[in-house]
């Protein structure tokens, strides 16, 4: 992460809320052969992130005992052209929001899997209202059991939370607002309108 303290002004609660709302990130830990990485949906519940992995996933295989892990959650981002500042002697950069959750990742007992799956799906399904929520009860029991045998439940205790909100806080307000307008209109990245609004609020 960018170490400049000007981009690390959010409290842990706000960073955690951002990660929880996204609910999807890059799970990473160190393996015997090098970094192990998976893209995973997760559910934040108190001081824990709950997720599941395919049983054959190298991360799942590495969890014979709890391992230090990180879930990196990416937010809106965009390339920033120096021309947008309209001031001299500037360089290109990238504005973004990212949150890292760190802590020990462990396998959980198989009997907890159904609860993990149901809580995860309920969390995301409630965001699709007025659609009638999907539940695992809609599946044939034998099909559900077969699919569940292929995955394992995991829990990462969240011991550390850090977030970078790089939104041109190092620029004068007029310059930052001008750049936010340019991001909204010409940005190269994702969720540009959200990023522009965050820049305006920075």
N-to-C span: 18 Å
Structural Rg? 20 Å
| Low-pLDDT windows of residues | none
Q: In percent, how helical is the residue content?
A: 25-40%
Alpha-beta classification: alpha+beta
Give the overall shape.
elongated
Biggest sheet features = 9 strands, antiparallel
Give the topology string: H per helix, E per strand: HEEEEHEEHHEEHEH
**Average pLDDT metric:** 96
Highlighted features:
single chain; 202 residues; alpha+beta; elongated
Summarize the structure in words.
The protein is α+β, with helices and mostly antiparallel strands. Helix content is 30%, strand content 36%. It is built from six helices and nine strands. Strands 1, 2, 3, 4, 5, 6, 7, 8 and 9 form a nine-stranded antiparallel sheet that branches. β1 (24-31) and β2 (34-41) form a beta hairpin. It is elongated and about 65 Å long. The mean pLDDT is 96.
């Amino acid at each position: 992460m960018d170490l400049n303290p000007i981009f690390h002004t959010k409290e842990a609660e706000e960073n955690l809320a951002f990660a929880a709302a996204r609910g999807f990130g890059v799970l990473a830990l160190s393996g015997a052969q090098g970094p192990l990485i998976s893209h995973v949906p997760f559910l934040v519940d108190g001081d824990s992130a709950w997720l599941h992995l395919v049983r054959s996933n190298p991360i799942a295989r590495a969890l014979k005992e709890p391992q230090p892990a990180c879930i990196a959650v990416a937010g809106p981002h965009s390339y920033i052209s120096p021309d947008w500042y309209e001031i001299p002697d500037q360089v290109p950069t990238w504005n973004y929001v990212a949150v890292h959750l760190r802590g020990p990742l462990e396998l959980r007992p198989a009997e907890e899997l159904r609860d993990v799956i149901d809580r995860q799906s309920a969390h995301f399904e409630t965001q699709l209202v007025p659609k009638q929520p999907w539940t695992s009860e809609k599946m044939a029991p034998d099909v559900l059991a077969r699919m569940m045998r292929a995955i394992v439940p995991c829990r990462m205790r969240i011991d550390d939370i850090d977030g970078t909100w790089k939104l041109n806080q190092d620029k004068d307000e007029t310059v930052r607002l001008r750049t936010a307008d340019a991001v909204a209109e010409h940005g190269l990245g994702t969720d540009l309108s959200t990023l522009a609004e965050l820049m305006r609020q920075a």
